[in-house]
Amino acid sequence: MIFGGMLLKSNSATIGGDSFPMLEDKILPLLKKVGIGPDFDMEEIFEIVAMAIIASGVAVACVAFIGFCGACCKWRPFLILYAVILLCVSAGEMVVVYYLIEVKTEVNKTVEVTLLGLLSTYEGNFGGIITMAWNGLFVTFECCGVNKQSETDDFSMSIWNSTRGSQIIPGYCCKGADYLSGLLLAGKECTTNPTSLNSYYGEGCYTAIEEAIEEYSSIFISTSIAVLVVEMVAVIASFCLFVQMVAVIASFCMCRQISADLEHSNNKRKNANKRWIKHKDNA
Question: Is pTM beyond 0.70 here?
Answer without folding.
Answer: no
